Amino acid sequence: MHPCVSTKIAGPGLADMIEETVEALNERDFPTSSSLVSYFNKDLVERLAKEYEVSIERAVALPGDVGRIEAASAELADGAFFACCFGTVDPSSSSSSSSS
Q1: How far, in Å, CA of 98 to CA of 16, rounded?
Q2: How far is CA 99 from its chain centroid?
Q3: Is 51 exposed, middle or buried (0-12, 13-18, 19+ CB in 10 A)?
Q4: In the 8-state DSSP scheme, what is residue 9?
Q5: Distance separating the N- and C-terminal Cα atoms of the chain
Q6: Helix/strand/coil for 25
Q7: pLDDT tops 70 at residue 91
Q8: DSSP 33-86
Q9: CA–CA distance, 75 with 14 (Å, rounded to integer)
């Protein structure tokens, strides 16, 4: 017997405990590894989308040149990707921003 359990569970008590556990699993009361990953990914995507939206609004005054807007959008997306994945901004993006 496990030291944390003060009584043995058998028969109807064990059946009830298993039934409650199965019901909780079916109702997703217990987090699974995939639900935790989905939760953190959802939070990350929402946060990055909000940061991206704010950055693009600051970087591009509308109405504007479509080519300039696309270039600014690509540069911001690359920077957000590198910052998220590597904790830094892609060094090649700094050279393109200094030339404009």
Answers
A1: 69
A2: 34
A3: middle
A4: -
A5: 72
A6: helix
A7: no
A8: HHHHHHHHHHHHHHHHHHHHHHHHHHH-PSS--HHHHHHHHHHHHHHHHHHHHH
A9: 60
Give me the amino acid identity at 3.
P
pTM tops 0.85, yes or no:
no
CB atoms within 10 A of CB 84: 12
Residues 15-47 have pLDDT tens digits of 888 888 888 878 766 677 777 788 888 888 898
CA dist 60 and 39 (Å) reads 32
Q: How many helices (H) and strands (E) does the chain have?
A: 4, 0
The SS3 call for residue 14 is helix
Positive or negative: CA dihedral 26, 32, 36, 42: negative
Cα gap 54→51, rounded to integer Å: 5
* CA gap 100, 97 in Å, rounded: 6
Distance, CA of 62 to CA of 78 (rounded, Å): 21
